[in-house]
């Protein structure tokens, strides 16, 4: 019987379909796998089980859970918001009075949605019609205006605030959603956006979470204002985690297996109009690590359509270098001087497709840029070229590709490869690579931890594996793992949520691996677990013996000696047993 919105949503939705909305899944047997969207990897370690309606990463991040947990982690939201998103998808009505749903975030979502509608309504006003005329002259017609929900913010200090107040939202809530400002010491609020063309910015579920406002010069009084004004960081909107157009582009990016990255809203809209619907924008900021991880859910291939020679070129290059370091294949769309994608498309949409198709690899672009206007036969220019290119080469993750570019640089400079390698050895690790290196060096599970986990996985597949152990044998396992054995046997009631989660993980681990003889492997696991336990115990006892001898605690020395003898005897028996098992396996 379904007695809660959560159960009803789970009954109507399949976890595979939910996750497919975010990342590309590959069917393997009864399950699905993918590259984990929560950490960088080259070999798929992320698995989804339709039977269990669970997902888990068996790689370095070890994340896992149900469909709600997945949406929460992907979107960076709370449970109530995930429930609302999945509820809408499943057609399950969530009562607004539910305290888990009517959160501060939900109020902010509602404010952004009502504001988007308000701005759209203003397009029928006198000034709004002028905006439509302006956009039409730029190639953005009414179809695109409607599709992207473009609107107009009147040149007024309080009309939006009055509109939202009438809907039951306070000035402070409107301010927190990024749509109002407040002068120091004043209790009054004012519209943040005034006299601007409004571009709503959407999350992955097509919900408006912020805005970009372009000043619309109806009169000269607006000449001194910033051309673009964006929503400040809010509970919903973080410019380093948002990509304009991703809600429209994500499926096309996956289908075409590459993403076109531009700088502005109109670039995205015009590119979609021209049929390049795999285009998104960073909204004027250098691409961040969080944005890269979003793109990586759909493709490993990027084509950048930035002005690489503008004032923000250095920040752009840093973002591109960061993308390369996590395994993106990057090409540069080389545009005509002084033109952006929107300009090119407005004049000749077909030409834009040709320009994108003719994108060059990022390293070819860097080489062309470094060698342009320089003479590689001159010592100073030779050094300048090397200084510019070596930092780009050392961050290439693949050693074969990296070596190719080292050889090319040496050849193009007319020097020996060893000279380039000497210069590389002098460089420090780039800052953006240090987190990756530190992550790889973090503490891993011990050999014994992994063996115990595997033994429990085998037992979860076949309970008879536990019959290999006597009650005394269980002491060789960690206490938490002994409890899991009791749960598997049905001898433990009132299971803690973390224990239940661990068992789900073990069951999923068992699903993705076929094992011929569970008991045989279980015995091999236990034999090594016991050996490692005894060796670790002997090591600890010998350390304690040294301390007891130093303090002349002879009674404790005698006790430790007995324990060492007992453990050594057990280890000898264990080693003998291990040899016997090995010989039997060899005979078979």
Describe the model.
The chain is α+β, with helices and mostly antiparallel strands and 588 residues long. It has five domains: 5-90, DNA Primase, Chain A, CATH 3.90.580; 104-230, Alpha-Beta Complex (DNA primase DNAg catalytic core, N-terminal domain), CATH 3.90.980; 246-361, Dna Topoisomerase Vi A Subunit, Chain: A, domain 2 (3-Layer(aba) Sandwich), CATH 3.40.1360; 373-441, no CATH class; 447-587, Up-down Bundle (Ferritin), CATH 1.20.1260. It has 25 helices and 16 strands. The strands form four sheets. Strands 1-2-3-4-5 form a five-stranded antiparallel β-sheet, sandwiched between helices. Strands 13-12-14-15-16 form a five-stranded mixed β-sheet, sandwiched between helices. The longest helix is centred in the last third of the chain and has 34 residues, at 554-587. The protein is globular.
């Amino acid at each position: 019987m379904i007695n809660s919105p959560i159960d009803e949503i789970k009954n109507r939705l399949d976890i595979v379909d939910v996750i497919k909305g975010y990342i590309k899944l590959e069917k393997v047997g009864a399950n699905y796998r993918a590259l984990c969207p929560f950490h960088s990897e080259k070999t798929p370690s992320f698995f989804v089980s339709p039977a269990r309606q669970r997902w888990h990463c068996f790689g370095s991040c070890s994340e896992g859970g149900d469909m709600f947990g997945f949406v929460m982690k992907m979107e960076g939201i709370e449970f109530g918001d995930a429930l609302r998103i999945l509820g809408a998808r499943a057609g399950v009505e969530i009562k607004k009075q539910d305290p888990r749903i009517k959160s501060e975030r939900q109020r902010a979502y509602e404010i952004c949605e009502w504001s988007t509608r308000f701005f759209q309504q203003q397009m029928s006003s006198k000034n709004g019609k002028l905006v439509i005329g302006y956009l039409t002259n730029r190639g953005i017609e009414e179809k695109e205006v409607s599709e992207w929900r473009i609107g107009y913010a009147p040149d007024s200090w309080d009309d939006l605030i009055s509109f939202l107040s009438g809907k039951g939202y306070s000035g402070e809530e409107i301010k927190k959603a990024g749509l109002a400002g407040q002068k120091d010491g004043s209790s009054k609020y004012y519209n943040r956006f005034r006299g601007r063309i409004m571009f709503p910015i959407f999350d992955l579920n097509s919900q408006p979470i912020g805005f970009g406002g372009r000043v619309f010069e109806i009169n000269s009084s607006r000449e001194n204002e910033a051309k673009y004004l964006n929503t400040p960081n809010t509970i919903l909107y973080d410019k380093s985690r948002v990509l304009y157009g991703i809600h429209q582009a994500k499926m096309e990016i996956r289908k075409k297996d590459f993403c076109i990255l531009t700088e502005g809203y109109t670039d995205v809209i015009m590119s979609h109009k021209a049929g390049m619907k795999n285009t998104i924008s960073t909204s004027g900021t250098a691409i961040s690590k969080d944005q890269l991880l979003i793109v990586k859910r759909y493709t490993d291939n990027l084509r950048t359509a930035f002005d690489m020679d503008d004032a923000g070129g250095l920040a752009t290059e840093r973002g591109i270098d960061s993308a390369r370091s996590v395994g993106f294949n990057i090409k540069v769309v080389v545009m005509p001087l002084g033109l952006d994608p929107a300009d090119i498309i407005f004049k000749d949409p077909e030409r834009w497709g040709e320009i994108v198709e003719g994108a060059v690899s990022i390293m070819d672009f860097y080489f062309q840029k470094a060698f342009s206007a320089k003479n590689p036969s001159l010592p100073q220019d030779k050094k300048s070229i090397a200084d510019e290119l070596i930092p780009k080469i050392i961050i290439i993750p693949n050693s074969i590709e990296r070596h190719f570019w080292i050889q090319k640089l040496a050849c193009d400079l007319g020097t020996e490869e060893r000279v380039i390698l000497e210069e590389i050895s002098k460089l420090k690790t780039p800052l953006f690579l240090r987190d990756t290196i530190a992550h790889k060096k973090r503490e891993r599970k011990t050999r014994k931890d992994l063996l115990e986990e595997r033994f429990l996985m085998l037992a979860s597949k076949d309970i008879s594996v536990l019959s290999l152990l006597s009650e005394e044998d269980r002491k060789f396992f960690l206490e938490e793992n002994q409890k899991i054995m009791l749960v598997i046997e049905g001898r433990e009631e009132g299971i803690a949520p973390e224990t239940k989660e661990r068992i789900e993980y073990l069951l999923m681990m068992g699903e993705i691996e076929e094992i011929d003889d569970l008991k045989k492997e279980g015995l091999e696991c236990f034999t090594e677990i016991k050996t490692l336990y005894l060796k670790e115990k002997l090591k600890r006892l010998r350390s304690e013996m040294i301390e007891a001898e130093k303090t002349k605690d002879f009674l404790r020395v005698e006790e430790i000696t007995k324990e060492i003898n007992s453990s050594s005897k057990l280890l000898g028996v264990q080693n003998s047993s291990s040899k016997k098992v090995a010989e039997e396996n060899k005979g078979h």
